[in-house]
Every structure is written in C-alpha cells, then in structure tokens.
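Re-run requested by the PI after the first attempt was lost when the workstation crashed. Everything re-entered from the original request form. Ligand of interest: zinc ion.
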Amino acid sequence: MYADDEITADRARLAGRITELHGLLTQPQFLPADAHMLSGVALQTPDLAPDGDPMGFYAAGGKVVMPVAGLKFIEDLTMAYAWRYRQQRTLEPLDEYLAMLRWKPESEWPGGAYLDPLEAFGVPPGAWERDARLAELGTSLRNEAWAFVLAHELAHVLYAHPGNSAPAATSQANEAQADAFAMALMESTDTLPLGAFLYFQATVAFYTSRADFPSDDAYARWQREQATHPVNAQRLMAIAQQLQLWARRAADEDRRAVLFDIGDKMEQFATGLKDPAMQQLVVRRAVYGDPLDLQER
Ligand SMILES: [Zn+2]
C-alpha cells in the first residue's frame, strides 16, 4: 500500500512517537507490581512485517515488534475517520473501505494499486496542519489504537506467551489474557478506547473471519484447530464486557457515557461478525463496490 519512500519519510517520526507512548504507558504508577519490567522491554520498528502482514504487530523473544507500515496505516485510518467526523459525514464507508482491502483484488483497484486511507477518503494533504481540532482528534484516536496494540503485545511479553507455536486453544486463551491486560492498562492510564475499536474494525477486515468459510461448522472447526489470533465475536464480546465494567467504575458522567457507547459499538460489531448473511453482504459490497465512490459518500 505504501511506496518505500513514503515509509522512509515517516520512519523516524513514527518510531519516535511509539517509543514515547511506550514510555508513557509503562510508568510505574500505571503498572501492577509484577509488570514493572515492561518499561525495559525492547521495542523494534522494522519497516515491514516479515510475513507481509499489512499491520504485523507481534511479540517474540521478550521484544515487541511494531512495523512502521502498520503504525502508518493505523495513523492514516484514524486520521481519515477524524476527517470525516469533522466534515459531519457518515462513518460507514470506513467499514466498506476496510472490507474492500480484504476482498477486492488489488488489480481491480484504480490504477491496479490499493488506495491508502487518506487517498481513499480524499483527505487533502496536510489538512491536519490547517485544522487544530482535526489534528487533535486524529492524534488521540491514533494514540488510543496504538496504545491498545502496544499494551496487548507487552502483555504477551509479561506472561511469556509462546506465540504462534502454541495449540489454537492455548493461543486463544493467551489472546484473551493479553486483551484483558491491555484494557486494564487503558483504564489505569485513562486512555479512551475508541481508537482501539477502530483498530479492531481494521483487523477484522484483514484477517480470516466467518465470511471465509462455507458454514458455521467449518468456521468453528478452524477456530478450534488453527486460529491463533482470531478476531472473533467472543473476543470482542469479552472486551465489550470489560468496557461496561469500566464505565460503571468511571466517576465522570460524560466519560461513563462514552465508555458505554464504545462498549455498545463493540457488541454490535461482534454480533455482525457472527451473522453469515451480514458477512456475505459485506463481502459482496466490497467485491462489486468502487473504491472511488467512497469519498463521495
Ligand atoms: Zn496477541
């Protein structure tokens, strides 16, 4: 999606920002006592993921790896979201865009190449330099999404999870444990998880889902036997439940309302993921839709 020179131009800035965020998240006052070692965990930012995964965040050998291309994609996606919000335009086309990335072959995109989120939504270059509120919203969404991913990967280091070599059931339990840790860290740093919700939307678009299988049974079998990092309804429901508990604990009324709202969104999204008819509709719209129409809506 990104040319080499685009990655080169952003490499130092994105690596700097994520290192800063790591420093903020791992301050001793936010971490449980047994997690203090997380401030010393090495963070690596190669340009691309080794296996060509478009986001490709992972933890291995006591390190967290966050490729620059994945950080940039999340940054562009959250900025596109913020831009549409500021323009008071509907947010549904973001789902469609993400589904197109997953289901529409690259050869059928304009000029035979994927559009990045800013191109797809016609966000004018440097729009955030002229609109301080856009910059603020886009940056907070980006940081919220990054914080969730980083905290999730740090949890894998903390619990010494073995990565992809574990059996599917173990991996899924590890994913749930890493999500729970990430949510707790978001709460103790008072980081709202709306950006994290956008991240889940993006991952669902990229990774295997119910729509890849002919039947519920085939999907269930895959989840049992092979899926190590599934983004599935159970995982999202567990996060939604944590959001509701967090909302009930929140002292501030506005904050409580926002947390309940994100929890509801997560739940609706999870319900949609379980619904094969809805998934087929998403795929059909993505296959037949025109990426150039996205910014007109
Ligand atoms: Zn994980």
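Saved to the shared folder this time. The CA atoms of residues 145 and 195 lie 4 Å apart.
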